[in-house]
Amino acid sequence: MTRHLSQFPESLYYSLLSESSQPPTQEPKPDPASLVFGKQFSDHMLTIYWSEKEGWKVPQIKPFQNLSLHPATSALHYSIELFEGMKAFRGVDNHIRLFRPNLNMERMHRTADRSCLPLFDKVELLECIRKLVEVDQEWVPYSLDASLYIRPTYIGIEPSLGVSRASQALLFCIVGPVGPYFTTGAFSPVSLLADPSYVRAWRGGVGAYKMGGNYGPTISVQNEAIKQGCQQVLWLYGEQEEITEVGTMNLFIYWTNEGGERELLTPPLDGIILPGVTRQSLLDLAREWGEFKVTERTMGMKELLGALHSGKITEVFGAGTACVVCPVGSLLYKGKTYQIPTMQNGPDLAKRFHKELTDMQVSRSALMLALTL
């Protein structure tokens, strides 16, 4: 096999097996009922170094540890970095599965290209991640209400203050058990702040890529939402105040449209929003059911508020890897709170989506291209 720049060394699988054959450390596993999001981590991590001179070095699975970085590391100064978010689930049959990880690899590859980080072989990286989860499989909670969160991260480690493409990079992955993303619980409604004075992303920018630079600047707006009694931010864009995303989620609106049709609407992939794996899964399910119209198009605040006023809105909910499906209960816009009747309507569709996806994830129903360990 010819080794291309995007491929890891041919000794990849031998390295993973030999590294993982070391006696695993035995950190105590937390009670699944007490888990919060992103606070606990497993015993091991994956690291893969790259340099312009040598290409990819041999991937290593090793004990979880701190990274040693040069103070001039480009990722620290210029945000030359990206990440992914995916989950592994322990099924009712006790098998462990990753849900649609190929979509995460595709998105990570696109983001690496946009970040001028070296490209990688998507199949080989997924095999590295699969092996890491296999090594730390006891960290996958024995619970249908918790999962193992997987965080692949890719950073430029060029030790230089020049603003340029990195000639050195590090791809690493850490994993840890997680419970519900929101403190309100697994399926409680959240309240949203919609303030047109703040913008998350814009056309021609990088809003469609999973870069840390898209998330850090949102923290102050998130804090402002909390000050105003809301839990998340509904991001608006442009003069028409187009609805885009909700915090770290894609947004869905289930309503009766102007033509009197039942319709599931979500903003389009026009460069502003992230192409979420859960978003794609809900669209795939809805189109497979064929019970209502499914549309990807923009909707402005004026149209949304008009539909709320006329009683056409049935449910509004967010969707993402961290939360799966999350109902929206209210919206604060220009000092006025608008109640959204999501919970009064079941919410039948949001709950159905949530059940379908979680059943797939724990193998209670047919799977959407899951990877089984």
From TrEMBL:
<dbReference type="InterPro" id="IPR043132">
    <property type="entry name" value="BCAT-like_C"/>
</dbReference>
<dbReference type="InterPro" id="IPR033939">
    <property type="entry name" value="BCAT_family"/>
</dbReference>
<keyword id="KW-0007">Acetylation</keyword>
<dbReference type="InterPro" id="IPR018300">
    <property type="entry name" value="Aminotrans_IV_CS"/>
</dbReference>
<comment type="similarity">
    <text>Belongs to the class-IV pyridoxal-phosphate-dependent aminotransferase family.</text>
</comment>
<keyword id="KW-0100">Branched-chain amino acid biosynthesis</keyword>
<dbReference type="Pfam" id="PF01063">
    <property type="entry name" value="Aminotran_4"/>
</dbReference>
<keyword id="KW-0663">Pyridoxal phosphate</keyword>
<dbReference type="InterPro" id="IPR036038">
    <property type="entry name" value="Aminotransferase-like"/>
</dbReference>
<dbReference type="GO" id="GO:0006629">
    <property type="term" value="P:lipid metabolic process"/>
</dbReference>
<keyword id="KW-0028">Amino-acid biosynthesis</keyword>
<dbReference type="GO" id="GO:0004084">
    <property type="term" value="F:branched-chain-amino-acid transaminase activity"/>
</dbReference>
<feature type="modified residue" description="N6-(pyridoxal phosphate)lysine">
    <location>
        <position position="210"/>
    </location>
</feature>
<dbReference type="InterPro" id="IPR001544">
    <property type="entry name" value="Aminotrans_IV"/>
</dbReference>
<keyword id="KW-0809">Transit peptide</keyword>
<dbReference type="GO" id="GO:0009098">
    <property type="term" value="P:L-leucine biosynthetic process"/>
</dbReference>
<keyword id="KW-0032">Aminotransferase</keyword>
<keyword id="KW-0808">Transferase</keyword>
<protein>
    <recommendedName>
        <fullName>Branched-chain-amino-acid aminotransferase</fullName>
        <ecNumber>2.6.1.42</ecNumber>
    </recommendedName>
</protein>
<comment type="subunit">
    <text>Homodimer.</text>
</comment>
<dbReference type="GO" id="GO:0005739">
    <property type="term" value="C:mitochondrion"/>
</dbReference>
<dbReference type="InterPro" id="IPR005786">
    <property type="entry name" value="B_amino_transII"/>
</dbReference>
<keyword id="KW-0963">Cytoplasm</keyword>
<keyword id="KW-0443">Lipid metabolism</keyword>
<comment type="function">
    <text>Catalyzes the first reaction in the catabolism of the essential branched chain amino acids leucine, isoleucine, and valine. May also function as a transporter of branched chain alpha-keto acids.</text>
</comment>
<keyword id="KW-0496">Mitochondrion</keyword>
<dbReference type="InterPro" id="IPR043131">
    <property type="entry name" value="BCAT-like_N"/>
</dbReference>
<dbReference type="GO" id="GO:0009099">
    <property type="term" value="P:L-valine biosynthetic process"/>
</dbReference>
